[in-house]
Predict the structure.
Amino acid sequence: MQSLKFTGESSSNGMVERDFTVGEVPGVLWSPASGAGRAPLVLMGHGGGTHKKWPAMTGRAHRLVTGGGFHVAVIDAPGHGGRPRTAYDEQEIAALYRARAAGEPEGPVVVRYNAHLAERAVPEWQAALDALQELPEIGAEGPVGYFGLNMGTAIGVPLAAADPRITAAVFGIFWHESLAETAKQITIPVEFVLQWDDEHIPRESGLALFDAFAAKEKTLHANAGTHKEVPRFEADSAVRFFARHLGQRATSSA
Amino acid sequence: MQSLKFTGESSSNGMVERDFTVGEVPGVLWSPASGAGRAPLVLMGHGGGTHKKWPAMTGRAHRLVTGGGFHVAVIDAPGHGGRPRTAYDEQEIAALYRARAAGEPEGPVVVRYNAHLAERAVPEWQAALDALQELPEIGAEGPVGYFGLNMGTAIGVPLAAADPRITAAVFGIFWHESLAETAKQITIPVEFVLQWDDEHIPRESGLALFDAFAAKEKTLHANAGTHKEVPRFEADSAVRFFARHLGQRATSSA
């Protein structure tokens, strides 16, 4: 097993931030500054073209850590953040830029490329989770949540299907084509975020992905607005979702 | 103007309950027992076949009063609670029971009968709101919310379209046929609750009603489950929705 190496530590706003690596993969672990003991872990997947410390990640982490008392971990996806790109990565990124420049739908490229990235990312996540569970403040027995939209869903759905340690998940903002079959294997509680006026993802495609989850408890949160206009209150909702399902008590920031 | 007459008062669980009448219409006003001063008012509409103190009403009121510091008022709909039924009421209720006994869809009867009830109920609600706003702890300037599912939506959508004092609303669990045109006039923030596996309301009909609202901020909460299985956490979500839009601070019960 690859062990976790801490490479840096800082603290602000009630949150301790520790950089780490597991093998070649860099990650970050945020924890309550109050020095909380053992607490459940929430894994977060970042979106395409961003990285583990993108503002959406630090913002959601802050809510989860200070509002729910969770540990929160993010790793850089393959080809993202400081990680090297393969020739295939470069080719797909170029294809995406070409589609955008031509005003063509980016869905086909994103769906295909993210399915490829998920194949590389799932074993990396599982190795990171193995290593994180060696830490005394996390442990191997606690429940684990997963929170990722966009590419974070493209990677998170196959991860949750493959790894029974994940017991609750927030997904959303993705097409159904590459994920619906895998979603049918997922029975853990799911909160699913969709943008009602998404200019990239057809409404029917997002609804079809939500419909595919086999979870007995699943909730769709569809908000008016375009692809990038997910309201911030959905992050607060995710804190409460994980608090309900991972056994923490949320404090309000409504 | 018809004035409000208090007819009874009791107190429990952090909540003062005052029965009242406005003209012939009986209602109930719940307020914080802590003797809070002026606070925003949330009107709640009950479902078909129930009344102002049905458990769903008292439960939601308790969350709104103790979790959000609101005043909460419900009036009995025409033909409901202790109110007399007209010959037409009896005829439609008989039609509903016949449809149920025959295993036929109840939607056509409910849609038609509730549209009729809404015509009678909207002026009653407006008179009740006039009278409630005379109370010093409510006042005429404060924002007003509306929360009603099922028949509470059939009445609430035309009420919100007719009365600009209502500035935020939680609706849901209803067909689109009789309401979609009116919903197109509604621009206040809306949270809309839908049951994904509703055995009475086709999924497409509920989605079409959500789609019809002209609100720039609207959120669909669709939960797995049948018509009557709306999860209790949706009541907590409504408290936070009203806290955001009516300017209160919610305390968590997640």
Q: What stands out?
A: Chain B has one domain: 4-246. Chain B has a mean pLDDT of 95. The CA atoms of residues 151 and 168 of chain B lie 18 Å apart.
